[in-house]
Amino acid sequence: MEELVRQIKAFEEQAGVMEPDAARRRELLSAVNDYTENFLETLPDRPAYINNDEMGRGIYQSPISEQGMAVEEALRIYKENVDDQGLSPVSGKFFGYIPPCSMYYSALGDYMAAIMDEFTGDFSSCPGAVRMEYQLIKWMADLVGYSPDAAKGVLASGGSIATLTCIVTAREAHGLKARDYEKAVVYYTRFTHHCIDKALHIAGMTDCVKREVATDAQFRLDPAALAEAIDNDRARGLDPWLVTGSAGTTDLGNVDQLDKISVVAKENGLWFHVDAAYGGFFILSDLVRDKFTGIALSDSVVMNPHKGLHTPFGLGAAIVRDGEQLYKAHFYTANYMQDTFFDKEDLSPADVSPELTRHFRALRLWLPLKLIGVAPFRAMLSEKLLLTRYVYARFKSLPGFEVGPEPELSILVFRYTDVEGDVNEFNRKLIEAIRRDGAIFITSTLIDNDYMLRFAILSYRTHIDTVDLAIDVIRREVNKLLTA
User: Fold this and answer.
1) Residue of 393, 465, 411 lying closest to 93 (CA atoms)
2) From the DSSP assignment, how many helices (H) and strands (E) are in the chain?
3) Which of 182, 380, 457, 458 is most exposed by smallest CB count within 10 Å?
4) Measured in Å, how far apart are the chain's first and last C-alpha atoms?
5) What does residue 165 show for φ and ψ, rounded to 5 degrees?
């Protein structure tokens, strides 16, 4: 026994480094804080994209080993191989994809959540943390017009998992079994986010019928075409099941006529799901709130706080109007969980989610909302809407540029057309030139086979001087290509 105790004590001493004392914590925190402060102070002058041929290979040159290293050396490796290359999504000059831009307030919430590491899978483990999450869900449910008392939801790792959660709920609510999938019909448009297809595949529903519905002149799902497609499918002996609408598409930022779609869905007994991952929080702005009329009549909605509310990556919300359906689709238990049923005043997130073990995500959103309130978010989103209209007007007035449809939210598309030869090829070269330059970052998309440059404005660090700079960079790169 004495030898066993000696071995235990020896291993305890070796492992003791895992629990740094106060002095060591101050040393580490000081080094990391100095690094992040320098990053934030120099961010306005950093490019939005850094070309680096090494592409992080230096990470492999410092293998995981038995012995640790100084924090300064670890930060050097990080800077050279992560920080100093690729995209800088937190830059105000990043206009690609749907720009995230995590706030310092959110980072403080994540820091606290990582230190305390509250378990939020079941209610009894940390009721306050679970109620914090449900408070946020109820707030979002109220935003879209659901009854906060009847609706239920969960904070997921992003829009894809939130969408999967809603798809599974819709499947179970419709009573679909594997034998039914080949006749079950899903309706969407060519602008629907690919996470819908992916969720169907992961949910085992690859064999369901996927019907692409025609769009109107504003590139929105055409409700009349939807109704006709449903009638045709029923005549073929198929089972119309799900229709997905968009409250802000990734390509164009357009918002479907959610009120009219909801009428068609209700008349035909379809589950109506709305992808509001990008656009949902624009409902906070008086400038566009009317565009979301009808979202309250949907059966489920996905919203991503890590987009419109600027938390760090990894925060999406799945909300179901009839929360009982969410619970029925996801509740499971096991013998080893029998002790989690004490003090059960509310549902556990694991009861309404695919996850059991999960990060304490709520704090990254709750803390900034409590520290600064909703008003700054409302103003920020309104500013982005007006900035987008400003950029659209600028490009519309510039010689040689062609703009796409008038933006509904904060995404616009354009291209340069005053060229000899293939316009698509010229704009491909233009996007590559902009990427090599790196000062700003934008992306591209295809609209009716036209190669369009895509400009997405959402970062709270993007302001009128930022977009003016971006327009200057784009014009400069056009001139370079024209004179090459």
Assistant:
1) 465
2) 15, 13
3) 182
4) 82
5) -60, -45
Q: 3-state class of 272 per DSSP?
A: strand
The model's pLDDT over 323-336, given as tens digits with 9 standing for 90+, comes to: 999 999 998 876 65
Q: What is the pLDDT of residue 342?
A: 56
> Looking at residues 336-343, what average pLDDT do you find?
61
Give the tokens for residue 234.
């029923």
Domain 375-483, what fold?
Answer: Aspartate Aminotransferase, domain 1 (3.90.1150)
The residue that leads in pLDDT, 348 or 226, is 226
- Report the C-alpha gap between 211 and 185 in whole angstroms: 7
Look-up: residue for tokens 């310092």?
A: 104
β partners of residue 401:
416
pLDDT in tens, 135-180: 999 999 999 999 999 999 999 999 999 999 999 999 999 999 999 9
pLDDT tens-place string over residues 92-120: 999 998 877 899 999 999 999 999 999 88
Burial of 434-472, coded b for 16+ CB within 10 Å and e otherwise, reads bbebbbbbbbbbebeeebbbbbbbbbbbbeeebbeebbe
- Domain(s) labelled CATH 3.90.1150.10 in the chain stretch across 375-483
- Looking at the chain, the domain(s) classified CATH 3.40.640.10 span 110-372
d(CA 56, CA 165): 34
What the block records as the tokens of 132 is: 């914090």
**Interstrand relation of 401-403 and 411-416 (parallel, antiparallel or unpaired):** antiparallel
pTM reported for the whole predicted model = 0.94
Q: Give the dihedral of Cα atoms 131, 195, 222, 265; nearest 10 deg.
A: -50
* Options 3.40.640.10, 3.30.70.360, 3.40.50.300, 3.20.20.80; CATH of 110-372: 3.40.640.10
**CA torsion 202→155→337→131, rounded to 10°?**
-160
Q: What gap in Å lies between CA 199 and CA 206, rounded to an integer?
A: 9
Specify the pLDDT at position 122: 86
Give residue 287's identity as a one-letter amino acid code.
Answer: L
Amino acid (1-letter code) at residue 52: N
Average pLDDT, integer, range 408-425? 97
The DSSP letter of residue 72 is H
Write the CA distances from 211 to 194, 221, 240, 257, 381, integer angstroms. 14, 12, 10, 18, 34
DSSP string, 187-253: EE-TTS-THHHHHHHHTT-TTSEEEEPPB-TTS-B-HHHHHHHHHHHHHTT-EEEEEEEEBS-TTT-
Task: List the one residue out of 335, 331, 376, 385 whose CA is nearest residue 356.
Answer: 331
CB within 8 A of 330, min separation 6: which ones? 165, 168, 169, 351, 352, 353, 354
